[in-house]
Amino acid sequence: MASSSLQQWKCNPLLLTQPSLTHHSGRRRVGNAIVALGDPFVLELAEKLEESASSNNLKNKSLHRLRETCTEEVFRRPWPSAKDESFRFTDIKFLKQSKIQVSEPLNSPLDLQGLENGRPGAYTILLIDGLLSTSHSHTAGLPHGVFVGSLSSLPDDYVLPPLEAADGGDLFSSLNGIGSRDLGVVIVPEGCKLERPLHVVYYSQQGGDDLQSLCVSNPRLVVVLGKGAEMEIVEEFRGAANKSYWTNSVLHVSLEEKAQLCHSFVQLQNPCAVHMKWTFVQQGTLSSYKLVETSSGGRLSRHNLQIQQLGPDTVTEVSTFHLAGENQTQDLHSKIILNHPRGYSRQLHKCIVTHSSAHAVFDGNVKVNRHAQLTDAGQLSRSLLLAPRATVNVKPNLQIVADDVKCSHGAAISDLEEDQLFYFQARGVDAKTARNALVFSFGAEVMERFPDKYLRNKVENDVKSLLAAAGAIR
Q1: pTM, whole model, 2 decimals?
Q2: Phi-psi region of 430 (alpha: psi -120 to 50; beta: other; left: phi over 0)
Q3: Domain extents in the chain
Q4: pLDDT tens digits, residue range 443-456?
Q5: Is the pLDDT of residue 429 over 90?
Q6: Checking CA distances to 317, which of 173, 233, 309, 342 falls within 20 to 30 Å?
């Protein structure tokens, strides 16, 4: 079997570098820049991922380019530490101390452990440990020209956007690109409107017995909407109970002129899981992207959201709710980039921290560049702390270079206020009922924005159960 590019690099580092490259003190020079040769832990993990994925889709040019680009990026990206600004408040040292194995396709019967098979009336696809399972997917009746399936089954006449160009991410998005055996692909052609939503379920079946042993999977989904196309997509992340696993996911969304995407994202991993996700969105002229997200599972959950408006008159709405319980970290890093006139964006982030060992992080950046005149952008973050020493780190950031805009942002962190409880009690509502209503309604402001009643009720019930288990409501 041919050796991997990482193995070849170990023998001859010049294989993956420019002709002008020179070495100095464990570093390498590319042009005028000196970059680290790579963290040994990162290189070992990347090699495992490359070996596990090397036999899949070798003939697919898009996937091959993605892997090659991500392999080179790994050498430029050391393992993040608290010294890196984007990980200053997110501790991932335990990952580096864990024994990480790569999930492999299993032939054993799937144990869904109560996982519901999608939403009633929706198209459904299921990705098990990163690979699309056709036997558990239901896409019959799709309109003519719509493709929902794996990259390996994509007809030759479909053209995807360059996958390697979509990755402006970090080490973990590069690791995903190296370890992707196949990609899920959704293509909606020009002028097509899907009347039924598409429910994408990500299920992690393999895992260890504790956080010292993790099994990593790398699901990647590409969604392309043609000119004037419309659809609703739901992403739901779950996994086997009492298993320790790491879901390292990437979603790439490309919206052409006047396309509209309604995106719901629900993260309900088990308490032993690690969840990392990158979402890249590119919006064309007059396009609309609306995201509603709830995240309440996992030992560590981090969502990196990057939205770039590539034309004028775009609409972007992002609403997120995070619930952090005992020993949990919920992290959202978002970036919305406006480069063209008359862009509209709204971002609402809310989180509840219910335990002294829980931690929430929000780093939200909205950048209004010079040519984005007449932009209307707003950002609001609100956090509710319900336990002593509960921690939240909030960093809202609004950068404005244009001079004719309407922009605002704000942030608030608090416990339940006595005057709020008094307001209820003064109207005959007892303290217990008042507290329950105030705590739940804090997150309900986001959850009620889910467009589908079935999904909304399902998420609300899950959140109520978690709040009750944490003693936040009684």
Answers
A1: 0.90
A2: beta
A3: 1-37, 38-310, 416-474
A4: 999 999 999 899 99
A5: no
A6: 173
